[in-house]
Write a structure and sequence with these properties.
The complex is a heterodimer of chains A (167) and B (192).
Chain A lengths: L1 H15 L3 H16 L4 H12 L5 H39 L8 H31 E2 L2 E2 L3 H23 L1
Antiparallel strand pairs in A: 1-2
Helix pairs in contact in A: 1-2, 1-4, 2-4, 2-5, 3-4, 5-6
Chain B lengths: L2 H15 L5 H14 L5 H13 L4 H14 L1 H30 L2 H28 L4 H19 L6 H18 L12
The chains are: A mainly alpha (167), B mainly alpha (192).
Chain lengths: 167, 192
């Protein structure tokens, strides 16, 4: 049943979305690919759209994917599911477990989770850039236009940062 | 004005006017909830920002839930969180209704081919920013590099292994190392 799949899929994303907006993108890719809800192409477009519209990226992606799979009810189900874990965790932490976050075992778990998220985000970024420029492993192609755009974009980001630092 | 309505409208306003998510919202929440409405104190705001870093979900949602709960309890938390979501939900739902038709226009489809390249670079840039802020210690670095390599293999060779399992393994490794280092005898909690 699609509503249940959407709910469980995005509940999983919501539970593990550490590390802000970009931490959630690899998880959403994972879930979307395993259910075959969107093509990789379409998902990347939606990440761009989410970047340019208000609100958290995770919520935007959930709304869009829910709506594309099961219309308005699907959008509602996916959006609520993705927010539910963080809502409950904050309620628990502020209402009952005021010291839970300072617990040394909780801290030890978080010390493992955070660098892992960073590694996953890094791998996702590297893979997306590689795939745009050289295709996938089953269909290796050299996309000259994409390589040129990539180099220009990276150069402009580096240049922008360099001049911003100088003031 | 009714406090629930006020909570809803304030967070709906914040949700509607913050693009790109994340830290842009914090200054707006600070301005509205701490300075103007005085719903929470500056210290509470700092605290919740730190907690939000270590809990799943967007920081803006965490702040909304916290402020609503402080002010009115559970119903307040619910109303504030919904207020935060509704604007982006409405905008994306509208877009989703005509995005497919939109992409059929050749000029738009070509633009999106360029945008696709930018998205990859943006994600790469976000990862580099996160690495710069990371603790420069052996264990986090090892975990970061190993997860990156495994995740790359998962992507490239289409391994059937979810990123969530990878995160659980990383958490287990970190906890095991902590316990093996004789943590239970250590007193005073989370000392570094």
């Amino acid at each position: 049943m699609i509503y249940l799949d959407l709910f469980l899929g995005f509940l999983k994303v919501g539970c593990f979305a550490f590390g802000g907006a970009y931490g959630a993108i690899p998880l959403i890719r994972d879930v979307v690919m395993s259910y075959g809800w969107l093509s990789d192409e379409m998902l990347t477009y939606m990440i761009a759209v989410s970047e340019s519209t208000p609100g958290p990226i995770m919520v935007n992606l959930a709304t869009y994917i829910g709506s594309s799979q099961a219309g308005f009810p699907g959008a509602v189900v996916a959006t609520l599911a993705v927010v539910l874990p963080s809502f409950l965790v904050i309620l628990l932490v502020t209402a009952l477990l005021k010291t839970a976050m300072k617990n040394k075992y909780v801290q030890a778990v978080l010390r493992g989770l955070k660098p892992c998220v960073i590694g996953i985000v890094l791998a996702t970024g590297v893979y997306m850039v590689l795939k745009n420029c050289f295709g996938t492993i089953s269909a290796v192609t050299l996309n000259i236009r994409a390589i040129v755009i990539t180099v220009v974009l990276i150069a402009s980001i580096l240049g922008y940062k360099h001049f911003k630092k100088k003031g | 004005m009714n406090i629930l309505l006020d909570l809803f409208l304030t967070f709906a306003k914040i949700g509607l006017f913050t693009f790109g998510g994340g830290y842009a919202m914090i200054s707006m929440i600070e301005h509205d909830c701490v300075e103007r409405k005085q719903w929470i104190t500056h210290d509470e705001m700092m605290n919740i920002t730190v907690i939000a870093e270590s809990t799943p979900g967007p920081i803006a949602i965490n702040c909304a839930t916290f402020t609503g709960y402080k002010k009115v309890g559970f119903v307040g938390a619910l109303v504030a969180t919904l207020g935060m979501i509704v604007p982006s939900f409405a905008v994306i739902y509208l877009i989703s209704m005509f995005l497919d038709n939109f992409l059929e226009l050749t000029i738009i489809a070509n633009a999106f081919k360029g945008i696709k390249i930018a998205v990859g670079i943006l994600i790469l840039d976000a990862a580099i920013t996160m690495i710069k802020k990371m603790h420069k210690k052996k264990l986090p670095r090892t975990i970061m590099i190993c997860s990156c390599i495994v995740m790359l293999c998962i992507n490239i060779f289409a391994w059937n292994f979810s990123s969530i399992s990878l995160m659980l393994i990383a958490a287990a490794v970190s906890l095991t190392v902590f316990i093996l280092n004789g943590a239970p005898e250590q007193k005073g909690g989370a000392k570094k």
